[in-house]
Records
---
Amino acid sequence: MPASKPDLPRAEVMERLEITADLVVLKLRPEVEFEFHSGQYTTLEKDGIERAYSIVSSPHEPILEIFVELVRPPAGHLTPLLLELKKGDFVSIHPGGKGTFTLEADRPNQFMVATVTGVAPFISMIRQYLHSGKRGLKFHLLHGASYQDEFGYREEMEALARKHPGSLAYVATVSRPGQERNRAWQGLTGRVNRMVLEQIQRFGLKPGSTRAYACGHPGMIQDVRKQLLPLGFEVKEEKYWTE
Ligand SMILES: Cc1cc2nc3c(=O)[nH]c(=O)nc-3n(C[C@H](O)[C@H](O)[C@H](O)COP(=O)(O)OP(=O)(O)OC[C@H]3O[C@@H](n4cnc5c(N)ncnc54)[C@H](O)[C@@H]3O)c2cc1C
């Protein structure tokens, strides 16, 4: 088994929350000082395999939170190892945030589209903004998943939207409504990219007063761009892999 990279610091697993058999939230405590901005990612490494993960938690929180989806072997390499981690285990970590997928607070409307774990950077931005006590921005978060148990942060987002209706609207949709696993689902159905235009209209969003973001599945991002760019929206994107 290849050794862990000697130059990377470690982080201890403080908590492991199983969302589904394929989706896990890891709460980590890096052994070194860790600085980042909401929306950024870091890299985790084990057995010589290093991958990028968006940070769910926001900088004011003491613990670093990551939302990981299993990519089954043989395609997946690191995620089978990450899903096996238990409380008290260690993983190597890049000591800080990376990337430019951060909040653009210069326009009042923030329109965010995510597939499953792609919600991570948006959770960080929303937690950070609401914690800061600032007001004036409205976040419109669209979250898509195949199954109703895959959202991970739906309860938190729905509660925050009820508490701060002027700052947050959260819309979740499942793409496989006919499946047994979605039997209890009473919310929206269909792929999240298919409801972008309808939600833009519903919220009355205009390009000049809106920042748009898309994160996660590359096909979703491409489709969102195809719909929004001709209308004059700029779209900030974070693709989790290339197709
Ligand atoms: C900036 C950035 C942030 C990221 N943040 C997250 C995050 O917060 N949570 C997270 O789970 N992943 C995230 N990823 C993806 C992550 O880096 C890994 O690619 C993923 O966890 C799979 O790792 P692996 O080693 O198991 O498989 P890999 O060897 O990386 O992937 C094998 C193949 O599986 C496909 N693939 C990769 N990820 C997925 C997926 N989620 N669903 C379906 N197919 C996939 C790709 O075609 C890839 O070539 C992010 C990627 C980037 C670039």
Note: The chain is about 20% helix and 30% strand.
---
Amino acid sequence: MAGEGEFDFIRTRLAPLTRGHPAALDLTDDAAVLTPAPGCQLVIASDMLVGGVHFLDTDPPEVVAERCVRSNLSDLAAMGAEPLGYLSSIAWPRNLAQAWREGFVDGLASAQQAFALSLLGGDTTAGPGPLTISLTMLGQLPAGTALLRRGARPGDDVWVSGSIGDARLGLEIARGTMPADPFLLERYRRPSPRLALGQALRGLATACLDISDGLMADAGHIAQVSGVRLELQAARVPFSPPARAWLAGQGPDGLVSLVCGGDDYELLFCAAPAQREELAALAARLDVPLARIGAAAEGQGAVLRDAAGVVIETGAGGFTHF
Ligand SMILES: [Mg+2]
């Protein structure tokens, strides 16, 4: 690496990110040694981000780091797990400015601060390719309680947390194709993983995931793995006030772009109708809005219907990587 050797970078920049966590052994050993709580299973999620593909070249390094950590935590939230720490593997382009790397580490530090998280290990290298970042997030939960995508049954309610489509609009703002709105931009740059909600849904939700590919695509994922059909009602999909204001100026395509836009990092889950009161109490206790947006039925796939019951064509729906 230019200007600063790899070992120096690990010692001066990365080692402080362990925050003295005993599992990290100050990053001086060959591997981390982690002890989960008694009776718990480890939950492990890995995410890879490639410059120019998963983030914009104009995104500040702090923002890239925050999005990496937060989206990875969202996968733990989707499983109902509590985070234990993470590993980072980074391939820096050889010509990357030192300031970019430092900004990236600052972003990791700030995300860690928000979630009391520690770096436990990883690897850094420099290469000829684009910036490539892989984070592996480790979490735990009581054995046998993980929220899976496969348990939805016909008759279950379909719920979603927070609001949908904000990050899609925030991305347009970051690209400079829409007027600035601090709330929407922040929803794209610093999504809030629903960790407390995910943990509280253990034993309540029959199926759960976090929305990264878009509401409709991810509803399709639950439908496929559970072997049910998800019937969603457009009028019940929750939108934030700025997203609502934007929608008011759009044709029907506006709604479709919000329900197919990705990066919401809200939880989409199914639960028996008998749980409605419990879920309402949970929403109040955690101060997380929960909207009941539809129901699971016999069949397959996910559809969105308008107030008259007519299916809204959403196309293939969602972000695909290939
Ligand atoms: Mg996910």
Note: The longest strand covers residues 82-93.
